[in-house]
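Explain this record to help learners:
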Amino acid sequence: MAGMTFDEFYRGEYLPRHADKRCRAMHLLGLAASAAYLAVVLWSQVWWLVVFAPTPTYFIAWVGHWIVDNSPTFFEHPIWSFFAFWKMIVAVVTGGI
């Protein structure tokens, strides 16, 4: 990663591991599950449960990687993977991928 730009990481490492539509769909499903979870937390007003909000996204996304038999980039590049996730989600929702 030394000397690599975010764009090089995104195009060279992140997108190839998310080339399968099923993997991208699982990431989107995980995000929707976390949004639903947050809605329940807001409704119930049990605020400490907010700390678990990322759990559905990560769990379902990792299942997506397991389905297509590849590994997530999160363990190698956690910060860039976080930003790449959002960039990919925007691209999926807007039809860029």
Notes: Helices lie at 6-17, 21-44, 54-67, 78-93. Residues 21-93 form one domain. The first helix runs from residue 6 to 17.
